[in-house]
Design a protein that fits this description.
The complex is a heterodimer of chains A (about 625) and B (about 325). With about 625 residues, chain A is mainly α. Chain A is built from 25 helices and four strands. Chain A has a two-stranded antiparallel ribbon. The longest helix of chain A has about 35 residues. In chain B, helix 7 links the parallel strand 7 and strand 8. The longest helix of chain B has 15 residues. Classes of the chains: A mainly alpha (about 625), B alpha/beta (about 325).
């Protein structure tokens, strides 16, 4: 009798679930999604709109916003790399040499990870479900219910993300590049918003608006438009025919994505290697050393696959010249820093994701700046620069966190660490090279944004174009913000040691702080990016806050130095423990000294900020 | 607790003592201990004195070889103990130690998008070879020496395992290292590349250089090393020259080819040190100091492998 639990599909499925259980990311996601539910339950729109927090309308409204706002990036995180992971860790020949069919392998991979994703997402609805038993003064609650939470979760989250998951899985599996998947995850927001604004909102028929909406985002709005809060609190919502058609279409599209993956997926190792696809077995089971030989001709005699072998005897006579490595001190460190920075930049350039991410950021900011009407100008230059700085903040944050994480963990992931760490290079050289590489990327982005906002201003005839406000705003606001975010990310990556954990912590922290700032709990001391705390007159001296802003920037730069020194102190590579090493101050002593100095500077700048308020 | 024949125990202790008092020792390891957080005691108060030249460290998988190599390469901190190279405390003066070090780990990766030339240039700069011209000459020589001339501009990501290993060797030779640590270097190499690697290693041993070759391939040590030690379960159970090791079991190794069923019975009766399948039967080697151990056995020429198996099996 056929037992699905004993099939290779079930084995692959189970292995994926087990792998995910040992990762930090799913647990971080569960916490984040539960926190998200708690936030929207306690401080969402229910109270001021008079909605009951467990009414069916509120459940649907929150679930679809959760599906749109919170989850897509995490879907990319979970679904992008299941197959890539196998090729990366080299387990692919072991798996593919077993009697597992392509469909079983791909389905097991997909559904194993999708199951984990759904379990994480379910924390949102479960938390919402549990919270209906909690009573808070001023909060409206109707009679307890069970089914709507899970029914709508399935309809609006699981089905919608089945499609997104299928797309991310397909792209990850076929390109074998996880960065492209993350870029797609980021691109989801602009694409979906543009699609909503440019296509769906312009449609006259509500039926088509529902049918063609992949997240079924507008369906509840169509039904609740013009209704009172009392009516919405008591209403029950059955699924309409257009919604059912929409959901079926989404499932069909997911199946289509999966079919493409099935037909296009190749189990052969993909690389530019000359040996790939050559005479070695189709699954590349032979270890690389064995693949050096090729059988040629009828003689059956092994011949060298590479031209250099006959030259072996000549190579033996080559004398390795003696070189001078006696350089010491700052000059040596600077030379090593330049070498490390050059390699970091080369590696970042080799990342295909940058080619996608930077244009997307420019496009997003370009749309915002392009549609800007000039604000309260003239003069317009400061207004344009202000908009560019404001819009780019989120992207600077994202790029800084993501690429710092990549740079900080790359050496370990590629197993270059033992070679690098046994070289006579100071820890600060390694850390600063990574910091500087990401900083240079962000500086390039800021310069491009500056050029774009100047061009947009000139194109729209909002002259005269004055470069000073553009330069001042970016150098006083955007650049120090970038410096701080990279510095904090470096420290977080060293202290937490897991880049996915760092991503989750960064997203949660930024989301939490943004929420606090929006709620009015905005303070100069815990707002390192000056979100909503500056205006052009403050920078130009006309607003009376110039000293405060300068003090804040000093405060932020001192905090950055503190973060970098902490990262140095707790860096995994051990340096000498004493005060002096190799005739100069040891790295740890230097870090301790910088911590003391930067804490003192940050404290002094903080006192100025407190006094000014 | 391992039980050794009395004569070998005396020999073993004597050799260790001999090494400990040796004035020519360049690398001295004293009471080195390491216990991992899971409770695994990887090194149990190891003492070793290594003179200049090639030193082989033999041991089965999980014996503690890589842990010892990582500590010597300044990548891992021991719980206790001292390591001194040429009078320099390697554990306290890590930066200075790294200047003298050439390290080829058991498992390592390289940046796949960089070419062989760029990779070597990077490591040369990190090792402090500041002069661009000298660096270029060094890289040219290294690339030629490890036979990668035709692949010098090729991204490392496209290299085969053997080519990657050769590039690893090249980076370990940058800057005339005084202490070269090679951990399982020939794993994954074909016989010809292995031989070429052996030649290269033996040629780079300079006047004041110590090369530590950690391996579980006994023939690598017998081919290359003037001195050796065997490590098992975190303890040094033998330290001597390969010749002494083989000499200590002269006239003690007996060999017979027997049916499979008989081999099992022999294992319980004799001190069988190794058995290999051979044409449907089993070739058994046994240790016996007191003459022929059983009917059908003949005296065999002892090898370093026999010595190794007699200690670890």
């Amino acid at each position: 009798m056929y037992n699905i639990a004993r099939t290779p599909f079930a084995a692959v499925f189970q292995a994926e679930v087990l792998i995910n259980m040992k990762r930090v990311a799913p647990y971080a996601m569960m916490l984040l999604f539960s926190g998200n539910a708690l936030l929207w339950w306690g401080a969402g729109p229910a109270e001021y709109r008079g909605w009951a927090t467990n009414s069916e309308h509120f459940i649907i409204a929150m679930t679809r916003v959760f599906s749109f706002m919170t989850v897509p990036l995490f879907t990319a995180l979970i679904m992008g790399e299941p197959v890539i992971r196998d090729f990366k860790v080299g387990i692919d020949p072991l798996v593919f040499s077993k009697p597992v069919s392509r469909a079983e392998y791909l389905l097991g991979k997909f559904f194993g990870n999708f199951f984990v994703l759904v379990c994480c997402q379910a924390c949102f609805s479960i938390t919402f479900f549990v919270l209906q038993g909690v009573s808070v003064p001023g909060m409206l609650v109707v009679e307890p219910r069970v089914l709507p939470y899970f029914k709508h979760f399935f309809t609006f989250v699981v089905v919608s993300h089945l499609l997104l998951a299928a797309i991310y899985f397909a792209v990850g599996t076929l390109t074998r590049n996880v960065k492209i998947v993350y870029a797609l995850g980021l691109a989801f927001y602009p694409v979906f918003i543009t699609y909503q604004a440019a296509v769906l909102k312009r449609m006259t028929g509500s039926v088509w608006r529902t049918i063609l909406d992949p997240l079924a985002f507008n369906w509840i709005d169509e039904l609740s438009r013009g209704r009172s809060a009392e009516w919405l609190n008591q209403a029950t919502f059955g699924y309409t025919a257009d919604l059912i058609v929409n959901r079926l279409l989404v499932i069909l599209l997911s199946a289509a994505c999966f079919a493409i993956v099935y037909f296009r997926f190749s189990r052969v190792e993909r690389s530019g290697n000359r040996e790939a696809g050559g005479p070695s077995s189709i699954f590349n089971l032979a270890p690389p050393s064995e693949r050096l030989y090729q059988e040629t001709g009828d003689s059956g005699l092994g011949r060298y696959a590479e031209d250099e072998r006959p030259a072996a005897s000549a190579a033996a006579s080559v004398v390795i010249p003696a070189v001078d490595t006696s350089g010491r001190g700052i000059r040596e460190n600077f030379g090593q820093f330049l070498a490390a920075l050059e390699v970091e930049l080369r590696l970042l350039r080799a990342e295909h994701s940058l080619v996608v991410v930077i244009p997307i950021v420019l496009l997003m900011c370009g749309i915002e700046v392009g549609y800007f009407n000039g604000g309260s100008g003239p003069p317009y230059s400061a207004e344009y620069a202000g908009v560019a700085a404001q819009v780019s903040l989120l992207f600077i944050l994202g790029i800084a966190v993501f690429y710092t994480g990549e740079a900080m963990h790359r050496d370990r992931e590629l197993r270059v660490e033992p070679l690098l760490w046994s070289a006579p290079t100071r820890n600060f050289v390694l850390l600063l090279s990574k910091f500087s590489a990401v900083f240079l990327i962000l500086i390039s982005l800021i310069i491009l944004l500056l050029i774009m906002s100047v061009a947009a201003q000139a194109y729209k005839g909002h002259g005269p174009v004055d470069l000073l406000p553009h330069l001042a705003i970016h150098s006083l606001i955007s650049v120090p913000n970038a410096v701080f975010i990279i510095g904090a990310s470096v420290a977080l990556n060293v202290l937490l040691r897991d880049k996915y954990l760092v991503y989750a912590v960064s997203i949660a922290t930024c989301g939490g702080m943004l929420y606090l700032f929006k709620q009015g709990y905005n303070n100069w001391l815990y707002n390192p990016v000056l979100f909503q705390l500056w205006s052009w007159p403050d920078l130009s001296g006309g607003g009376g806050n110039q000293t405060r802003i300068l003090a804040h920037r000093v405060y932020v730069l001192a905090l950055t130095a503190l973060c970098l020194a902490l990262a140095h102190l707790f860096f995994g590579r051990r340096s000498s423990g004493g005060i002096y090493d190799d005739g100069s101050l040891s790295g740890r002593s230097l870090a301790a000294l910088i911590i003391i100095i930067s804490a003192a500077v940050a404290g002094a700048a903080g006192m100025i900020l407190i006094r000014a308020s | 607790m391992i039980r050794l024949p009395e004569h070998r125990l005396v020999k073993f202790t004597g050799t260790i003592r001999g090494l400990m008092v040796s004035n020519t020792a360049m690398l001295q390891i004293r009471s080195l201990k390491k216990t991992y957080s899971g409770g695994v005691q990887a090194l149990k108060a190891i003492n070793l004195d290594l003179p200049k030249g090639m030193f082989g460290l033999l041991g089965p998988n999980g014996a503690g070889k890589t842990t010892l190599m990582k500590i010597l390469a300044t990548l891992l901190e021991p719980d206790a103990g001292e390591v001194e190279f040429n009078g320099i405390d390697l554990l306290a003066r890590r930066h200075e130690a790294r200047r003298m070090l050439g390290y080829l780990p058991q498992e390592f990766g390289l940046y796949p998008s960089l070419t062989a030339e760029q990779t070597l240039n990077y490591f040369a700069r990190l090792k402090g070879v500041a002069d661009a011209r000298a660096r270029r000459e060094l890289i040219d020589a290294l690339i030629e020496r490890v036979n990668l001339s035709s692949a010098r501009g090729q991204p490392v990501g496209e290299f085969s395992g053997g080519m990657r290993q050769r590039l690893g060797v090249a980076q370990a030779l940058i800057g005339q290292p005084k202490l070269i640590i090679v951990d399982e270097p020939t794993a994954g190499l074909d016989p010809e590349e292995r031989a070429r690697f052996h030649n290269l290693l033996s040629e780079i041993v300079g006047e004041e250089t110590v090369v530590i070759l950690s391996t579980h391939i006994v023939s690598d040590v017998s081919n290359l090393c003037g001195r050796m030690a065997i490590i098992r379960r975190g303890e040094i159970i033998s330290a001597c020259t390969p010749q002494d090791a083989v000499g200590s079991i002269a006239d003690s190794i007996w060999e017979a080819t027997v049916p499979r069923e008989e081999a099992t019975a022999l294992r319980s009766r004799l001190k069988v040190i190794s058995s290999h399948a051979f044409e449907g039967r089993v070739r058994v080697k046994a240790l016996s100091k007191d003459g022929r151990p059983a009917e059908g056995f003949s005296l065999a020429q002892p090898t370093l492998e026999d010595y190794y198996f007699s200690l670890v099996s």
